[in-house]
Amino acid sequence: QVQLVESGGGLVQAGGSLRLSCAVSGRSISSYASGWFRQAPGQEREFVAGMVRSGSNTYYADSVKGRFIISRDNAKNTVYLQMNSLKPEDTAVYSCAADPRAWVKTTPQYDYWGQGTQVTVSS
Q1: How do residues 2-46 score in pLDDT, each as one tens digit?
Q2: How far does the chain reach from its first CA to its final CA, in angstroms?
Q3: How many CB atoms lie under 10 A from the CB of residue 114?
């Protein structure tokens, strides 16, 4: 049984930074492609960032490119999302996801999901 648990969300002022963590248990994170998604109230879940299973490539939504960084620590079995230069429009519940396929999917068709963590950016 693979479980994902996010942490690190909170309230931050515009221009600030947060680092989200996604701790994976049950199997090595290197067995999965991973992704971060977010969902704001009344909106659909959207892709934010992803990393292929090998860890060699990363992908970002245009709205966060240059501000967010996805990374992975295989020793800690944890995926991170470093969020810099945050904007009020980044406010959402952020969820991490994992899938045994090798590539990143920008649609929310992942096998495993965390419960989500709230990020609120004040103006």
Answers
A1: 999 999 999 999 999 999 999 999 999 999 999 999 999 999 999
A2: 40
A3: 23
